[in-house]
Amino acid sequence: MIWFTVVLLLLGVVNASPFLHKHHSCENNQTTIRREWGQLSVAQRINYTDAVKCLARKPPRLPTKDYPGVRSRFDDFVATHINQTLKVHYSGLFLPWHRRFLHLWETALRDECGYTGYLPYWNWPLWADDLKKSPLFDCSSSSLSGDGEYNPGEQALAGGNVTIPRGSGGGCVPKGCGPFADFEVHLGPFSRNIVSLTELPEPKFDYNPRCLNRSLNHFVATHYTNTTLIDNLMAATNITQFQTAMDHWPARPDGVFGLHGGGHFSLGAAMQDLFASPQDPAFMLHHGMIDRLWTNWQAQDEKNRRYAVNGTTTILNPPWGQKVTLDTVMEFGVLDRPRRIREVMSPTAGGFCYTYT
Ligand SMILES: *[C@@H]1O[C@H](CO)[C@@H](O)[C@H](O)[C@H]1NC(C)=O
Ligand SMILES: *[C@@H]1O[C@H](CO)[C@@H](O)[C@H](O)[C@H]1NC(C)=O
Ligand SMILES: *[C@@H]1O[C@H](CO)[C@@H](O)[C@H](O)[C@H]1NC(C)=O
Ligand SMILES: *[C@@H]1O[C@H](CO)[C@@H](O)[C@H](O)[C@H]1NC(C)=O
Ligand SMILES: *[C@@H]1O[C@H](CO)[C@@H](O)[C@H](O)[C@H]1NC(C)=O
Ligand SMILES: *[C@@H]1O[C@H](CO)[C@@H](O)[C@H](O)[C@H]1NC(C)=O
Ligand SMILES: *[C@@H]1O[C@H](CO)[C@@H](O)[C@H](O)[C@H]1NC(C)=O
Ligand SMILES: *[C@@H]1O[C@H](CO)[C@@H](O)[C@H](O)[C@H]1NC(C)=O
Ligand SMILES: [Cu+2]
């Protein structure tokens, strides 16, 4: 009887907590689960890549007249990302903007291409030791294709204190290598300069059809997406420290990438393109992992982390940048109406209703 009362009291306290109350906006909807690629069945993986290819066959909403490189619904996402690049990277908008972007992508796959699953993610350290043998990049019909053809001309990327040895590919994903072997990308490329962001290109939307160019990079995967770095990230005690571990640029003295850069530079030219990287079908799964880690980190301390933001609305947070607040408005072009940062701070509120395994 005493125990029963204690339990009831505890339940009362929990129910009255402002945190749970706020998160009740999701209560009438079943919380959906985003799973790791390796946790999906082969049929679920194929359903995902089929839906991605379906979006790449659908007509765009952006006018090709104004945006010549935009040839498909898939390209609407790429062009929107290109357009926002100088605001939503290495800035206070990085985490919130990409959270909404992923949701819009997942929704388009479901609503426009009949996909019945949810966004998968790529848990980097599970596969870092041998990307080529991973279910993500093993060239099987249930993968996201794999390495590019060996390009003897691919160089190491070097600058400042950072040198990244070349990867194992450097050319087109070859015939027979999974669902994106014949995939055509249309936009970019933009500079892949990894050190100096002092001379940034402007967004452009020219039509430049070419193959999906990959170079799996064992060095980057093992050095910049490993469990030590994830543990370090998750141990961050404030959002500034979290963002730094996730997303700092390598031009810092020890020349280390953030985990965000680590995933991008693990895969080769298409993913190393700061502007046009959503052209690689692995992009959304990489960002799924980033959003998952942020989600878990936020949930560890509701009071201090749920609404924590820091930085500006400009790439690399220059001193003159406008500081972000929860009322800062983010833009999504043809994909969505503008959203305040506040709206996206919880995966179970504001129209979101998802969790990660
Ligand atoms: C794959 O998608 C089809 C509909 O396109 C659906 O009927 C089927 O259940 C899906 N398979 C899995 C494993 O989700
Ligand atoms: C490289 O490292 C040295 C020593 O840590 C530092 O002084 C220098 O500023 C770094 N260079 C760059 C480009 O980060
Ligand atoms: C792939 O990208 C590399 C690096 O930008 C480039 O040198 C190479 O020409 C590209 N290969 C193809 C076939 O597009
Ligand atoms: C992860 O990488 C960092 C630096 O790149 C290194 O110091 C650390 O030992 C690595 N950890 C593991 C588990 O490989
Ligand atoms: C964030 O945490 C780091 C590491 O503990 C600390 O050095 C820094 O002062 C903190 N920043 C703020 C704004 O609390
Ligand atoms: C925001 O980040 C800057 C460094 O980029 C740091 O100096 C400042 O203390 C941070 N503020 C908060 C409230 O975290
Ligand atoms: C790019 O951003 C500008 C300014 O917000 C907007 O007018 C334009 O429609 C956007 N274009 C795309 C492709 O999103
Ligand atoms: C609940 O589902 C409805 C219909 O699918 C959707 O319109 C609404 O945004 C969802 N609400 C939340 C909080 O997820
Ligand atoms: Cu991005």
From TrEMBL:
<protein>
    <recommendedName>
        <fullName>Tyrosinase copper-binding domain-containing protein</fullName>
    </recommendedName>
</protein>
<feature type="domain" description="Tyrosinase copper-binding">
    <location>
        <begin position="89"/>
        <end position="106"/>
    </location>
</feature>
<dbReference type="GO" id="GO:0016491">
    <property type="term" value="F:oxidoreductase activity"/>
</dbReference>
<dbReference type="InterPro" id="IPR008922">
    <property type="entry name" value="Di-copper_centre_dom_sf"/>
</dbReference>
<dbReference type="Pfam" id="PF00264">
    <property type="entry name" value="Tyrosinase"/>
</dbReference>
<dbReference type="InterPro" id="IPR050316">
    <property type="entry name" value="Tyrosinase/Hemocyanin"/>
</dbReference>
<feature type="domain" description="Tyrosinase copper-binding">
    <location>
        <begin position="280"/>
        <end position="291"/>
    </location>
</feature>
<keyword id="KW-0732">Signal</keyword>
<keyword id="KW-0479">Metal-binding</keyword>
<keyword id="KW-0560">Oxidoreductase</keyword>
<keyword id="KW-0186">Copper</keyword>
<dbReference type="InterPro" id="IPR002227">
    <property type="entry name" value="Tyrosinase_Cu-bd"/>
</dbReference>
<dbReference type="GO" id="GO:0046872">
    <property type="term" value="F:metal ion binding"/>
</dbReference>
<feature type="signal peptide">
    <location>
        <begin position="1"/>
        <end position="16"/>
    </location>
</feature>
